[in-house]
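Quick one, T. Sequence first:
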Amino acid sequence: MFTTILILLVVLVLLNVPLAVSVGIVSLIYLWQQGVPLLIIPKLMLESVDSFPFLAFPLFVLMGLLMNSGGISKRIFNFANCLVGHLRGGLGHVNIFASVIFSGMSGNVIADAGGLGVIEIEAMRNEGYDDGFSAGITAASATIGPIIPPSIPMVIYAMSFEASVGALFIGGIIPGLIMGVTLMITVFLLAARRDYPKREHIAGLSELWRSFKQAFFPILTPVILLGGIFSGIFTPTEAAAIAVMYAVILGFIVFRELSFSDVPALCVQVLKNLGTVLFILATVSVFTWILSRERVPEQLINLIIKRDITPAQFLIISNIILLVLGCFTTITPSIILLGPIFYPLIQTLGINPVHFGVVMVLNLMIGALTPPVGPVLYVISDIAGLPFFRVFKAALPFIIPLFITLVLITFVPQVVMFLPKLLIGG
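Structure tokens:
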């Protein structure tokens, strides 16, 4: 029976039925067939969403929306242009550098793509860059958002894998910077071959200082968050609340580009995101109970022991699974669905959950750039007014540096673990 519902789940996902609905359908069929009282469903669903750390999710979403609507994107883009716009392929580098900075505020790949994307693509068009290149690098650079802290996917991962949110945040810093560097190398090579333009002059100290002053307070956001978390002043959930307060101060008082009339729409957007994730969490909790009842984690652990699978082999297998799954579903559902399966396996193999978390999120970021789902591709396609598959084709060269970064952090865990061990001891 269990094999049948697994096959049905795969079929439903391939048919683009929403994951929460797919999981809910197969769970109901299983419980009905096995004669399990259906009253267990509301109990499991309520327990799964009753989590204090999960409060960080809607708060970080709200913070990202406030930052996005408060004139932050324009200031960051201008500062990045002063710093790296003079390099060959200038606005391509600006695109990446701005995403690295904006990552410290949004924590969300869609927020990055949607917020900076409009400014970046318009600026690149005005400078004579072709639409394909502009759309491709904008889509690829947005994937840095959930790697450099704060990161909404890592908050979800921490719930599913019982990992430290603070350690995950800090563990993503070096991989995120490596992603930026490898993407910039790719841009430089493409720009040299295609003779893309660059900023005519290097920004003078006065211009650089002026742009830095405009971007200073937004840039300070990750410093406040991470400094407070690993110094013990506040928890990650409290940090999310402080981040919202800081975004309100910047948007309403410092920059004065937010008005009270903007707040209802932002709150509705947060509630939509929250409702989607809560629905997924609740339905997957029932499926998790079924997995436990069928002793699936135990059987997988026994298989690993019997086959003598090494941590490196498991990481290769899990990377393949995540890359394929990322093509067919979005980031949060994938983390929630695989949590109860992968967590006992990495415990058995002695893989650090912080290391695995950054690997998992980067895998799913690459998936966000691949069809048929590819949520980032859809956002950029809409912004640029280009066909979906043209954006995908343009993004393909930039998947290579992301994949190189993935291989590096998979097999050299010190890249992820160096800062967490240095700053918070784990």
